[in-house]
Structure formats: structure tokens, C-alpha cells
Amino acid sequence: MRNSVILSSGMHVPEQVYTNQYFNDLLGEDVDTWLRENVQIYERRWCNEEESVADLCVAAAEKALAEGDLKATDLDLLIIATDTPEYISPSTASKVQHRLGAVNAGTFDVNTACAGFVTALDIASKYIRSDEQYNKVMIIGAYAMSKYLNMQDKKTVTLFADGAAAFVLGADTSDSGKGFLASELTTKGEYADWMGIYAGATKTPTTAAVVAENDHKLKILQRFPSELNPEMWSQLALNLCKRVGVEPHQVDHFFLTQININSIQATMDRLGLPMSKTTTVMHNYGYTGSACIPMAYEKAKKNGKIKEGDLVMFIGSGGGLSFGAVAFRL
Amino acid sequence: MRNSVILSSGMHVPEQVYTNQYFNDLLGEDVDTWLRENVQIYERRWCNEEESVADLCVAAAEKALAEGDLKATDLDLLIIATDTPEYISPSTASKVQHRLGAVNAGTFDVNTACAGFVTALDIASKYIRSDEQYNKVMIIGAYAMSKYLNMQDKKTVTLFADGAAAFVLGADTSDSGKGFLASELTTKGEYADWMGIYAGATKTPTTAAVVAENDHKLKILQRFPSELNPEMWSQLALNLCKRVGVEPHQVDHFFLTQININSIQATMDRLGLPMSKTTTVMHNYGYTGSACIPMAYEKAKKNGKIKEGDLVMFIGSGGGLSFGAVAFRL
Predict the structure, then answer these.
(1) B305: distance to nearest CA of chain A, Å?
(2) Beta-ketoacyl-[acyl-carrier-protein] synthase III N-terminal domain location, by residue (chains A, B) (predicted)?
(3) Do B236 and B323 form a contact (C-beta atoms < 8 A)?
(4) What's this model's pTM, rounded to 2 decimal places?
(5) How far apart are CA A123 and CA B136, in angstroms?
(6) Which residues of A fall within a CB distance of 8 Å from B129?
(7) CA 20 to 30 Å from A279, out of A223, B72, B101, B251?
(8) Residue A1 pLDDT exceeds 90
(9) Beta-carbon pairs below 8 A across chains A and B
């Protein structure tokens, strides 16, 4: 039985730091107090004018390859999860494939908003488990949402930020018990029109009027019920526990979408688990969408919070609303 | 052993027909002669102002469900392959899930330009083959490129058009020999900057200047070598033949990307096979990108060109350049 295991990983964020003070000045009001006290965001990174999402992907990919002592030509498949692509078409993955020199890798992008990385982890695992052509698969969660922000929109501009992180997954045929254990994807499409980038595609093509109105920018049209993510995330965790055959306390670490630290706290509360069993990165990076879950993994790895043999869960949600959950034995 | 089989399919195109005469008038020159004589395109369908890609998807999906006597709630997963999405974010699939009422389906979009449908066919097959949660998976190839066309660009406006087609794939545990046999994905990322929609994402965000210059529209920046698709498609066909253990003449039907009938002819020539072993749809539909391969399948099915037990190959290419090839036993 072939299984999908995490071989290595890496992340990259732009150099340019934007503190909360920048937004106080930009918006002409104190947003820092709310950001610090309510969502624990202190600073974030944004691409500069010359940077875009492919740059973040290439840098994260190179770190993941280096950590695994791998060459780009070792990769059989490259999947990029993003809803802030390099171009509308072709895929960001094709561009990154060329820049990396990953000439043996098939490529595609996955868009399921901020659930994209977990979904890509599920897809990549299925390639490795079911097709012997796939021995090394790279997945990248990438986000350059700064490019789609309306600088006058307090609800979005203070939260969303840029970053990328990559995993290299490999095929393990040793029956080690390591690697992919279970997954679940679910969608509540009734929320598709609540948050998104609604103009610039086929429903509302870009026009001068669209640009004048900033309709091509990210919009939060309705506020999601605060209980929605904790309910869904904890239920997904319980579902995975059942499939894996463990109790929640036997899970060593959770990597959850970093949109709001209160949702993470509420999820851990529902599971009866301490915050020490999860890692948060919004403090210094803001909300980095499809990149935030592997960025949290990088932080946990760096801080020695996870080790070989640990049972971990990646649980993400994003616009759509789409949800993905994957359990791995490290 | 679980395998992925095609249970049913359906297609939809917009009502509005644009003949070559429309483009003679639009461009003020005779483009009809070249289109008829060189690429055998006579007419195509475009969305009207109120239509967009999700409308095409929902209509195609409903036909596929009806043909299979299935309900939307039967679907475990919905994958939409498109590079002309409903929104930039969230996914087109989340919107379509809600409109269909496919409440039990996880969702994501795949973007690998016009290789998207074949790639989605590969992904969906891997879900079905490797995870018992997935018994009914819908994939849709969808294209509303009319929304991204520069009406003054003769190279694109005369060729590209709109449509969608859906497959429902099911799990077969009967060891019937039917269903998915082999696949290959490959990418030549060195061509990523040759054809695409380059502004409107993170590399070149939309601005008033971008709109004024029509940079947010589809552009062909360099002409692809005419031998590239025939070389790649015939090689992919031979690779799949080898994996399946057959000679090319034992393949009953080929479904190839419909960008240029001459590429299809040259591919069949290289394989030493007659044009009767393939089906073309560009004559009445123009080039419909990620939708064209399942649209060709629909035509072949309707015309009795394929039957149970046939060995068929789906081979697609698209911007990136990305290539996908899948062999199925019907």
C-alpha cells in the first residue's frame, strides 16, 4: 500500500512589513487597538509593486526543496492552491514550474479559496496513493491578496496579507503507519455570495465602471455567523477522529485557518483541548488565506511543537464556503 | 479494486449564435473565408449579457444528472475545470453546488487552462479509486471566454466561444474492466507567457490604465509552433497505449482539444489512424477551451460513434502549456 508522507516544507513572506500603525495612518482612525485586543494581529507582510504570487511560490518551493535535499526535477506534480493567481490564465503552477525548472512535473491550480491548501493536500495524497507515476508531489498554498484590496475598506485592508508555503509529499511503501490517514471535503455553497472578489471574471467582467467602483476588489458583503467556523471545524475534527479511530485528545496538533483567533479558541474549547495543541501565525502575518495553514505548520516545526509520529490535523475553510480537513501521521 | 466509470454526461451552449458573417461585419474584412477554409469554423455560441459560466455549468450538470437518472444530492464531489470562472473568488464550483442543490458534494475548481477537463477527469478518477467516500463525482469543463475577448483582436475574437459539458463518474467495484485505465499530465511551462489573460490578477492588477489598453483580455502574444500539439498529443497517445497494452489502432475513439482541426488531422496522421476515429465540434461551436473535449464526447455519443466497451482517449492541451491525457474503457 502506497501512502503519502510529508518529506519537507518551506515558507516565504514578502520583506515589506506593515504594522497596525500604518493602517491607523491610512484610515485616519485607531484600528490598532481593535486588531491587537480582538484578533491579535500586530503586523503583516505585503508584496511590493514588483512582487506577485509566483515570486512567493518560487521562494517557498525552493526552501521546501532545500530542506528535503531535493531537486526541482525530482517533482512529478506541482499543485498550487490560490484564489489570488499570477494570471487569470494560464495557471500559476505552469509559471512556477518553469521558474523552478520542475520540467518533469505536471501542473494545475486549485481554487477553493482559503480551503485550497488542505484540498490540495487531499488531492496530492490521492495522486500518490493511487498512481505509481507520482513519487514526489509539491503543493503550495499561496496568497497575494494585497493586490485585490480596496485601501479604503477597513473590514478587509487591515486583515488580509501575503505569503506562501510549500510541502513536498512523497510516496511511502513501507507500511510505516506514517502519512495520510483520512480526509473530508464539504461545501456550504449558500454562502458563495458573502465574501469574495466578484468582478473581473465572467459574472461581472472588468470595465472602467467596475474599476471606478472598486468592484474588482475583495469584498465582505455579509458577516459570517461567528459560530460557523468553530462548529464546522470541530465537527470535521470529530469526523476525522472517528475515521482514524482516536479520541480528540489523542491528536497532537491542529493547524486551522487563521482568519480569526477567536474561532480557533472556540474550536479548541469545543474539542476540550488546550490552545497549546494549535499554532497561530496571524500575529505577525495577518490573514494569509490559502497559505496560512502550511505557514502555521512551519512555525510549529521551527518551534519544536511537532515531531515524528505525531497525529496532526489540517482543517481549513474559505470563501464559498468550502471546508477541507486532512489527518496525517508525521 | 474500485474503478472510476462514466455514468452519464450532458452539455449546454448559450442560445445566441454568432456566424462568421458577424465577424466580417465587426472587423470590416472577410474573415469568413479563412475560418471556413483553414479551420472549419462556421459559427459559435456566446453568452448574452445576463449569462455567465455558472449558468452554463448548471444547465450542463442538470442534463448529465437527468441522463443518469441521478439527483444533485447524490453527488459526493463537484470539480469545475475552467480558466473563465464565475468570480475570481470563491470557486465557481461552490456557486454551482448551491444552485444545483448538491449539498453533499465537496467542491473545488481546477485551472490548468484548456487541459482542465482532462485533468479534472484524472483527479476525479483518483478520488473514486482511492477513497470510498466518493461514489458519484461530477466534473464540468466550462468556458465563457467571450467575456474576456477584445472585440478588436482578430486573432482571438473569431475563434473563442462559450460552452460547458459535464460527466458524472461513478465507482465500479465489479472488476468489469470498464473505466479509467491510464493517464499522464505534463507541462511545458516555458510557454506560460505565450497565450493567456495576463492582467486582472496579482502580476498585473486591474487599473483604469489596464482596462483602457484591453490588457485584461485574452491575448495571443506568440504563435505556437504548429507541430507542437500534434507532436505532444500523438506522443501522449502512444504513452497511454503502452501503459494500457494496446496498439494505436486498437483505440476506438480520440477526443482532442478543438483549438485547430489541422492539429487534430496531423495527430491522427502521426498515429496512422483515420479522422473517423475522432470527433470535431469547432464547426458549430468555435473553440470552447476546457469544455471542448466533453462537448466532442457528447456529439460522438449522440451520433452513435462510441459504444459500451470502446477504448477511448481524452487528450487535451491548454495555456501554460499544460497537457493531460486519460484512457477509459467505456
Answers:
(1) 30
(2) 108-189
(3) yes
(4) 0.98
(5) 16
(6) 130
(7) A223
(8) no
(9) 270
